């Protein structure tokens, strides 16, 4: 049994945690009786016109039609290779079976639909959306993270919420400019982080 020491006490500071999202997926499973993938299929993907969303087995995505799997440029081989084939990154294959952080695949159109739904009462109450699009209130802790988004007030753009994602050479970025009713979505499947930063 491995029990690492706590990095810091709750409420003392903030750090993003993929493990926290694994725990959250288990909370959904315990509360609903359904694993996260089944829960989302039942409560979201089947309820709205999502066409290309779900959790897909990593060993199958390179054979799927209309799917853009991730690639990593290998300097040694002079070509793009599967990220999990790179020495030291084998863990990408077996960790891709977990639920919670990452692993959910959506087409650009489905991400746009999800973004639209988030601005309605169809899934979340106004109070829940307020918590998602506001920094969490944890005592005197100064942070931007809410329930799934970083949130800030930009002096020129007004209220802004954003999140990034990366897994196995896939990069994603979504940024909502609430006051301008504008959302920017950027996706990349070749780990070109310098291009994503420029965008």
Order of helices and strands: HHEEEHEHHEEEEH
> Which structural class should the secondary elements be placed in?
alpha+beta
Beta-strand proportion: 15-25%
Q: Overall 3D geometry?
A: globular
* Percent of residues in helices: 25-40%
Chain-averaged pLDDT: 92
The major β-sheet equals: 4 strands, antiparallel
Low-confidence stretches: none
Question: Tally the helices: what do you get?
Answer: 6
Tell me the span between the first and last alpha carbons: 44 Å
The total of beta strands comes to: 8
- Spatial arrangement of strands, main beta sheet: 5-6-7-8
Computed over alpha carbons, the radius of gyration is 18 Å
Question: TL;DR of this structure?
Answer:
This protein is of the alpha+beta class. It contains 6 helices and 8 strands, in the order ααβββαβααββββα. It has helices at residues 18-32, 36-45, 91-95, 108-118, 126-132, 193-198; strands at residues 53-55, 72-74, 79-81, 104-106, 150-154, 158-167, 170-177, 182-188.
